[in-house]
Amino acid sequence: MQTMHIVRVREDRKKELCEPEQFKALCNPPSYALPRRKDCLTKTLLVMRLTTFLLLAIMLQASAHTNAQTVTYTGRSVPLTTVFSAIKDQTGYLFFYRKEDLADAAPVTLQLRNTPLRTALEQALEGQPLNFAIQGNTIFITLKPTPPPTSRDGSSPPPSGIHGRVTDSLGTPLSGASIMIKGTKRGTTTDARGDFELRGVTENVTLVISYTSYATKEYKVRDYTNKIFVIMSRSNSPLDDAQVIAYGTNTRRFSVGSVSTVTSEEIEKQPVTNILLALQGRVPGLTVDLSNGMPGSSVHTQIRGQNNIVNVLGNKQANDEPLYIVDGVPFAPQNRNLSVLLTSFAGNNTFASENTGLSPLNVLNPSDIESVSVLKDADATSIYGSQGANGVIVITTKKGKPGATSLNIRVNTGPNKISRELPMLNTQQYLAMRHQAIKNDGLTTLDPTDQYTFGLFPDLLAYDTTKYTNWSRKFFGGTSNNTDAHVSLSGGSQYTTFIASAGYTKSVYNFPGDFADNRLTLHSGFHHSSQNRRLNIDFGSDFSYDRNNSSSAPSLGQALLLAPNFPDMIDPAGKLAWTYNGADLSSYQMMAYLKKPFSLQTYESNNSLHISYQVLTGLTFSIGMGYSLVTTKENGSDPLASQGPPTTFFTPNSSASFVRSDAQTINVEPQIDYRRTIGRGVLTALVGGTYKKRMSSYNEIDASGFSDDALLGSPSAATTFTIEDGAYLNKYDGVFGRLGYIYDKEFIINLTGRRDGSSNFGPGRQFGNFGSVGLGWIFSELNAFKTGLPFISYGKISGNYGTNGSEGVAPYMYQPFWKPANQYSYPLFQGTRPYQPVNLFNPNYSWASKHAINLGLDLGFAHDRVLMNITWYRNRTGNQLTSYNLPTQAGFRNVVENFNANLQDAGLELSVTTLNIKTKDFRWTSTFNISGNRNKLISFPGLSTSSYASLYQIGKSTSMITALRFAGINDTTGVFQFYTGKGDRTYRPNYQTAAQGGDMQIVGDNQPKFFGGLGNTVTYKGWSISLFFQFSKRTAKNYLAGVYGGGLPGSMSNLPAELSGMFWEQPGDKATLQRLTTGSYQAGPNGTLAQRAGSYFSSSDVVYSDDTFLRLKNLSLSYSIPAAYLKKVGMKAANIYVNAQNLLTFTNYKFGDPEMPGALYTIPVQRIIAGGVSIDF
Amino acid sequence: MTAFLHIRTTTLASLLFACLLAASCKKLIEIPPNPPDQIPERQVFNDSADIMAAVVGIYANFKTTAGSPWFGSGAITQTTGMSSDEILSTRASDPTASQFSQNALSTDNSSLGSLWTDAYQNIYQMNACLAGIRNTTAISERLKRQLLGEISVTRAFYYFNLVNLFGGMPLVTSTDYNTSATLPRSSVDSVYLLIQSDLAYARTVLQPAYPSAGHMRPNLYTALALSSRVCLYRQQWDSAAQMAGQLISSGVYTLEQDPNNVFLEGSSEAIWQLPANGSYNQTAEGAGFIPSFSAPNYTVTDFLLNAFEPGDLRNTDWVGTAVIHNYSTNTDVTYRFPYKYKNKDVFGSTTEDYMIFRLGEQYLVLAEAQAHQNKLTDALDNLNQLRTRAGLTGSSASTQTDVLAAIMHERQTELFCEWGHRWYDLKRTGAIDNVMATEKPGLWQPDAALYPIPRQETQYNPLLKQNHGY
After folding, report:
1. Is residue B344 part of a domain?
2. Which CATH number characterizes residue B445's domain?
3. How high is the pLDDT of residue B20?
4. Which range is least confidently modeled, A16-20, B269-273, B380-384?
5. Are A834 and B60 within 8 A, CB to CB?
6. Nearest-CA distance from B459 to chain A in Å?
7. What is the ipTM of this complex?
8. What range does the domain containing B256 cover?
């Protein structure tokens, strides 16, 4: 008696299964039996492959129905397909088979007369390597299992065992699935075609089949003579979602490391142009700071706190940046600023540390990104050896999916505006402020003929005192526009899939003028696997062109400080105004800045090729190759049109700078993967090697004396040139491995290691070893748990310990070099090109070494509808590799050194995801994460005599705030006072620390106390709304730091309106801020005192305050138009949406943006609203 | 069986694979010995052309064509000009400048910081060259001595300025950062000891002839010019008189008769002049002092203007005038600005070089030393050389005190806005407290005579003791 088993596809998978066009007809609910109407299907089905039928989730052996159908057919040496065709015509039965299975079928000779169908088939397939099975009115033709080879000793062949194939619901074979015989330690693994065989096993066993990201399935074998087919369904639990890790993927269920993944679903909701900004608040332990709100500007990330001693307190150095990997290719080393011209003033180039500039990650289109995995602990990163200490961010681009070719179009556009405006004093308030300052300084009469007075007070003596311009609004108040369009085409068969997409993004600057960041991206991905599935090839390519047009103006944010009665910058004749009533406007002519164009064009190409071949079951050789090239063309110019007219003393001169740079990375990584079932567990092993070469170079031409502004784009039109260039080369190699064993789905052990070497280090210091050990116990697998606490669906404790390194240093710094001095500042000296020393050197430095412990507890409740993770970690980074500060008496400001300081970061991370409500039409999910890191300097031999003596203290955070203690305002003089170390009040404190006998004290800690995000998504039928809040709490610089770090209050420099009335005016006043002073040298003793006290004030504890905020980072609203309407117009899906970034901010932080504390006069964070449509064809 | 086979295959393959990689590990990361734009230090001092390039790098580090103030060009003029009584900044919201005028420097004043930093960066190059040249065999002993002498003069000049600005400072003579980074301050006397020994060495090895065209690299007379000045500051009147006398009587230099020609290229009174004809900029003085559209950034104070006697050509030739009409008040504002260097930019019509030492000063050194030696007639003769050139009659001073006062007055009007002479003179003669208390009532404090050590330096070298009052 033959039986038929039908395994039902779970209801929620149905829709997915139906999506490709050819499957649609199959999915008529409620049954999965094939439709009877043959005309509906005939043609399609005949060419369909066997696997298509597998989507029905059927395990099939043979059909019991051999009803009255008969066949009459005569043929001589006819192809089998012809016979099938005849049978189909006569019986209405359909055939399902894989074309390639019939490849070896011999032509048949048949004489059938009213032969029962079953017999007819038996005859047709006689002697063929094929089996048949009838189910409903469909006949499935499959290959016979390969007969076992006869053993050499001539004994009888062993009894054949169970053989079968494991596929997913689309029929794609699952290679490496584990097959275990329940209750025993016997098991095996599927090969590249998904096939497996268990010899010597007969019926009545139960197989337990498991595969990553799929629900484990038990299958009772009733008949071992026929091949069995097991269709695995995707697991419903997020624990089983695949996540990208180093050199592979795993799932949260069996992971013992700390990895957080942000998926395209979350990314697409955010109208940001830089992928890093899409991570804000979403990854526990990851901080993402932006330098300003200009399109394309730098974004800095830090994983689990500060690992490195830095030069300047509160400054994040690039040496702390994680390693970025895009589709296997190392990308954007140290997240270094792309622009050469914008960094030429940055100084210290040893560690490319830029707090401003243009982000190299801006070249990636977030719409092309499938997922971003943030690897945080040793288990996840030790395999990257000396590159992994600061964590790793693995970006994976979108790949094609099998199915009918589909086209997706997304277009959106919307306004940008600064998120928080800073109101400044109006003219009346401003003049009152100035007069108060004049009064304070005792400068009762202003002599307009006195050269000094006229120079100092043009706002009172020359400008129109009745005029008012809101400069903040004039320069930054505009509403600009963001436009984003993305077209993506994907599809393919089960062997070959592709994706190709194009995107265009335009972000306009919100200050006046034609400034925008334009980006064009092309993304493609191809996958092919051979028919036997042993050979797999993946090729991915990303190209992008970005043109960022802005101004080479020095900090435009200073426009906020302009006197509100400053004259119009464009005169009535439409020309730039340079003088007004005799006053020189040139220092403040910001419209001229906007006539100095700057453009950065970036051409980026990132290509990856991955070829793998399964040599034996479970054993795969592969090689990954990557090449990335980033070329930039930069052009900044100072045209005559932006300069004043010639005068007696001044001759305008146009100049321009041209920079070309390129950075190439070649990366080759051969790899062997091995996977097999051993005993009751699954063993995975990986061995690989890395060869990486990074080359970069730049050259800069500075030219001047152009005859016409129209020629500023061409250096050859200049009369004077200088050239500067540089080149860097880094080679890196390593071998790495990973060994994992999951025993009985309960116990996990994972070992990783790497030995690597880098040419950035000197002889004898190049190679190092790194490794990690991870252990996990899924305690919810205990029967006691399963029965006793059934509401706990998942429970795991895991831990790992390991080492890795940090190598972010420029090449060649271990030797002393000299080089020809920059031609621009150092012309030939009597025909000789002068040399200068390049660096101080230390031959012995090597990477910083980090030791990290990570302990995690994962819990799942109510069938994993609530999942939470709590992680505690402790990282210790020693042998600090840093640009060691030196007093300049040593000739240079720093030298690359290791030193024995040990820095600890310890913290807790909590993340929770919940599926709150799930009904047919309504679904509500939430996510929440919060993390806190505590950084501490645990040792630093010789700290007190080192150059860090006043920066750091043992036992304290490296981001502790050392400041003068503010002692209020002296009522009589109206000047700020500060406490000395002894507790006295003084106007002139000493900047040394208390320990050094000075007055600086530790007053706080700049590191965030906690930060995180909270998201809710609700979908109801076609409607979806998602809100994501980001929050953070820390102590940080406040607006007063900006006010006293800018122009001196009282001088010709505007102030935030809020400060009006806060200044001391006369003896006895209990004021918040000290007397205003004009900045004149005649300010008198108290004015002078106040002037200096102002600069002490900006180093005092008052300029720090609580910086806690809750920001509605993202609001996304979308509506999917019901499919019924779309069908008529030939669309598969259509969405209308509005996405908004930085919409609302709740904070007590007074002015400026809480995400950019203390940076009062820069271009603030933008509020972006984008509305659009997404259409699928 | 098969399982074992698999494992063995895997292991073997992995091992082979690992071995292959491990064997070639070192080879794979080999890189060329130097980046294309740089040379290893040992190679620099092994080649005569490279050595010359390294030495002229020291002169290039004066940055005389940078158009902005640096230690070696303009910064000392600008900062001490404000600290004393020569110029005032008209830039309204620039506390960096007004702190100098108010004699209320903050230790994190950026102009102050760059004075120190810039000096020590060049001193490093001097020390590197001194050591490299001493040990090289790539050039002749004669050339070695010549170069060592030149560098010694330059280093002495740097330390001379540093000690006068900051007081005793770390005396760095090597390039080993392990020792130099932790040096405390030396006493003023030990700094002068180094200066004088550097100069003594230079005087023995340098020749009267300049080592290259023009007066661009120090010769014997440059060493003498600095030596005489140092002796004057150390009140070694005899030596000062002897050396200044030797220089003047050599006849190599003569005073330019027209004050407008003094700072031009090839000036006959130039003892050491660095090229200042950059393709982009010229002198920092020209760029910083001369106005573009309206008001200049710095104006000459009334104290200095009043110091010029009627008819003094220097008041018209060396102080520029810009008259600005203020339409708002319908008044004229007359700006006076330092105008010794007349090229604001590269389009200047004359060729100017940057003056380090000139004969004019040597007359004043000689006169002052002679006055102290009580050789008043000789002193007046030498003083009057400059007065005559300035279109003035001879000094009528007769007593030693009067003659000394006349010399100081002449130094004020002759050497204004030039290398900090006024500020240094006020300090070395002890006149500073009286003069400043009169000119800046309520502001002056004696501690202000020394600039503070920049905050970052005391931070990075905890052994550096800050000057009193900061």
Report:
1. no
2. 1.25.40.390
3. 52
4. A16-20
5. yes
6. 6
7. 0.93
8. 4-274+356-460
